[in-house]
Prior knowledge:
Blueprint: H1 13-20, H2 33-36, H3 61-84, H4 97-106, H5 108-124, H6 128-156, H7 165-171, H8 176-186, H9 190-204, H10 206-219, H11 223-253, H12 257-286, H13 294-314, H14 325-331, H15 335-346, E1 353-354, H16 359-368, H17 373-389, E2 413-414, E3 417-421, E4 424-428, E5 431-435, H18 438-446, H19 448-451, H20 457-462, H21 471-478, E6 486-487, H22 492-503
Helix pairs in contact: 3-6, 3-11, 4-7, 4-12, 5-6, 5-8, 6-11, 9-11, 9-12, 10-11, 10-12, 12-15
Amino acid sequence: MTIAPKAPRRLTMKQRYEALTRDLDWEPSYVERSDVFPHTEFEGIKIHDWSKWEDPFRLTVDSYTKYQAEKDKRLYAVLDGFAQSQGHLSLTEASYLNAMKLFIQGVTPLEYAAHRNFAYLARHLDGPGPRFAALCQSIDEMRHTQTEIHTLSNYNKYYGGFHNYLEQYDRVWYLSVPKSFFDDALSAGPFEFLIAIGFSFEYLLTNLLFVPFMSGASFNGDLPTMTFGFSAQSDESRHMTLGLEAIKFLLEQDEANVPIVQAWIDKWFWRGYRVTALVAQMLDYMLPRKVMSWKEAFELYFEEQMLGGLFQDLAFYGIRPPMHVDDAIAEKEILSHQVYWTLYQFSHAAAFTTTVPDAGAQKWLSENYTETFDQLYKPLWDKEAKNIEAGGRHFARGLPQLCQVCQVPMLFTEPGDPTTLCQRESVYNGEKFQTCSDGCQWIFEREPEKYVQAWLPVHQIYQGNCGGPTVPDVLTWYGIQDGDGGEYKGSVDDRNWQKWHDAADHSNIGSEG
């Protein structure tokens, strides 16, 4: 009798993960380890045992690619169906797409930037576990870039503002806010980047960034963006968990890491919070159908879940809540109004449109911001409505002073006084620099040699580096076309929207039964 040889035993998922990561690592024999991984020492972080890194997901290449391929199939089926059925006509209103224009102009390029630096970490982190985790996230970020572009490309056939987002990301004034955030992170060391993106951006602020966009898409008839959001959400959850794992790993390796990590949390919380100012106004002003107010989202996702949960756990390691968090909490009543009022005045130089909130929207704002809207911001809109009746829609013709750190125009007010603009001044090498808040001033004065190099759009215009001295010159250099920005009512998008819906044949509605 011939006994058949036993089939090789199949490895479990955990064993395959171990083989892919730990078993592919080796100790260099003819060069020093510090020569192989030179970038993980200069920040002062001490790592004693890289094997202590725990990847909570333990993905393998085959399971990762299979899972992502299944998600892509579902997403692209939805995109095809939406495009073939003229689904864009089922949106609540064309003005809703201003939120998606901001998304592709300001968020999609960040995904690509994250892809680049996680690929760098996949090479330069010492430990095999974090290297593979960084590799997976790098691929995720590239996939998100591609799927976001494909998701929103359908709208580019019919609406303005989508056609030149990559060039605009490098040039346009309001997009320097997210760009400067990521450039700051990309030019930091590997561990600071992990805290900046993996922890502060992915863990602390992702819910404030993604949930409003995706929930708003769902509530306003944007099925492709909603589906993309679901497709990306499982990745984002993994990124958030990895971000938390990264910070715990650093804190557990050496007590000397705690003050370094705390300073990074203080810095990157405020940097990320200032980026979400663009999201705040989108949530309160750009969605025809409102999902939740910025104030409500901030209280739920940040105050309750982050301050009330995460930072209670991190206190065990000696980590306290971020510096200047009280200023952020105090701003939740006023942030979105101040930002949208500024964008409204400068939208003639933007690749999205703005308009005065109608009576229903102002009623909603009044109900959700009982302590501030009627007293401080409704009078502005009432006055603007009179200007428009008199034929004088207001656009600011000057150039705003920008914050040297976050690059948001100096529109924020003093803590506790929403009627006085906040402006802080620092001197470095005999030159004066302006910042918008105590948080940005603290960041500037901590690393002035870095922020004095900031590429500030307004300064570049004055220096003659943006196509010419006139507004049309600069808009041409930005790649902004007629119909991309300005007032929404009467715009190309608005006129087309009215024409397409007026031309639709509704005569059979109600007669099907």
